[in-house]
Every structure is written in C-alpha cells, then in structure tokens.
Amino acid sequence: MKKEIKEIIEKLEKEGKVLKGTNDCIFKGIFQSEECKPVLAYIIGEVLNLSKDYVLTSLSFKPTELAKEKYYEHGKITDLIVEITGKVINLEMNGEMQREIQKNGRIIRNNGYHHNLAGTSVLTAENYEESKEIIQINFDCINKFDDRLIIPFKLMDEKGKYVLDEKFTNYHINMEKVRKIDYNKKEISKFEKILMILQEESKEKLRKISKGDKELVEMVKKIEEMSYDPEVIGLYDKERMDKLVHDIDVKYAKEDGIEQGSKQEKIAIAKNMVKDKVPTNTIIKYTNLTKQEIESLK
C-alpha cells in the first residue's frame, strides 16, 4: 500500500470519517453494488413516481461510455446509466468539488450526455414510437434553481405551452436544501435521508440517519467499506488532484482559450498539497513547479 493512501486511511479512522458519496468514485461504487440496488430503485421510483418494486424488477446497468461523434474524441464517461422497461436513465452527481464547473460547464456537459443518449435511442429504434424515454437525474450539491427538492425540465416553447419531446426529461435534485435540515428536530423522509447520507462524512451521524432502515444501513456499510479500500482511495485521491489543477484552469479561463494560473497561484495550490502530504512528484506533475520550489515550501 502506498504511503499516502495509508495516511488517508489512518486519518479517516482517527477522525471517525468516511469519503462522501458526492465523490464520483464513491457515488458509482454505491449504486453499482448489488447491496444498494434497492436504494437506487427507490430513488428512481421517487423521482419518476414509480413503485420501487416495479423499478427493481426491471433494473439493469448499461455501459457508461457514450458513443463518440468523431473517432479521435476522448471517451464521454457518465456517472451511471441504467435501464428499466422503456426508459434509459442517466444519473449524474454534481458534487461540491465541481462548484465552478457546475456554475458554468458541468450542466452543459451533462445536457450533452443526455442528448447523446436520446440520439442513440432514436437511431437504434425502428421508429420514434419504439424509441426509449431518455431521462437524466442530476444530484446537485450546489443549488442553481429554486427551493423545490426535485425540479423536472422538458424541451418546450418559451411560453411553456408546447412540449417538443415527451420522451426527453431532465431532473435536478436540490441536495443543498437537505443539508440545512436538522434530522434530530424534524421528521424526514427516506428520500431526504438518502440525500443526507450521500453528503455526510461522519460515521456516527451516518449510523444515526440510517438506523432502523435495513436498506439504508446497507448503504452506509458500503460507503464505509469503500472508504477504507486502498484501490478506492487511489481513485478518490486522483480526483482530488485533478480538482486542484482544474481550479487553476477554470479561474483563468478566457473566451480566447485557457490560460495557466500565475506562479503565485500555483505556489498557493502547491502549499495546500504539501500540507496534505501529497508526494513531491505528484505536486510537480500537477503544478509544473520544480522540485526545489516545492521543497522550499515544506
């Protein structure tokens, strides 16, 4: 086991914490597991107004890499794609780590995934009537809209009189709203508990929220199991490093292209990485600072 991964696990154990379910690799791991399939079916049922049992009996997982429009394109990897009778559902976690992306390009990118799936469905069907309903469910840690918990979006005219495509629906779940609820003082629904669990890192609080519900207890167990898995930690750590670099890129993005952050900004990022005990070689890779410059920050 790598030293830095071991240190992360030891830190989590010492502080009684887990990795949040808002992290992409944890989110995917939870809902692709057999243990948490009933919870996934419950979520889909709540959003689409279907019974959990109906969803569960027909639920199957699909490849998460979408079709490329050009042979040289990078793969388009979604978070999760499932299918139930007559419906293809793309689930996307828009975590807190992607605050800037979510404000600007994240939703646009997710919409692209949605349109890609819709186009593929129409092209592979004999006719439009046989094409599947294409649904995207977004879990938004940073709320972009109003105070509703679930907001459905459709393609329609500006007056909202005509729906362009009944088989194309996009849902946004306001997870930020649930974070403000005090579960000790208010009776909360199972759906709200699931959203809380995805955003919580305290093992003690997770066990309190899930207590009494077998499916939620299994969900929490899965999160704890993944949080102490060196392979999962490695994926989590990579995402964290990518985020640090992305912060530099997004902050200095301009219409005519992307500019690299100033030396001072890179040094500030490097300081945080040093503080988190990130290996020197990794810091060099993501900041382009020299070994001597990084050593001087220790």
Kindly state the mean pLDDT as a whole number?
78
Q: Give the strand line-up of the largest sheet.
A: 1-4-5-6-8-7
Shape: globular
SSE pattern: HHHHEEEEEHHEEEHHHHHEEHHH
Report the count of strand segments. 10
Residue share in helices? 40-55%
| Count of DSSP H/I helices | 14
Which radius of gyration do the C-alpha atoms yield?
A: 21 Å
Low-confidence stretches: 65-76, 98-105, 121-126, 244-261
The proportion of residues in beta strands is 5-15%
Distance N to C terminus: 24 Å
Please render the helix and strand layout as text.
Elements: H1 3-15, H2 24-31, H3 37-48, H4 52-58, E1 60-61, E2 65-66, E3 76-77, E4 80-84, E5 87-94, H5 99-103, H6 105-124, E6 133-140, E7 150-154, E8 168-174, H7 175-179, H8 190-199, H9 203-210, H10 214-227, H11 230-251, E9 253-254, E10 257-258, H12 263-275, H13 280-287, H14 291-295
Parallel strand pairs: 5-6, 6-8
Antiparallel strand pairs: 1-4, 2-3, 4-5, 7-8, 9-10
Helix pairs in contact: 1-11, 3-4, 9-10
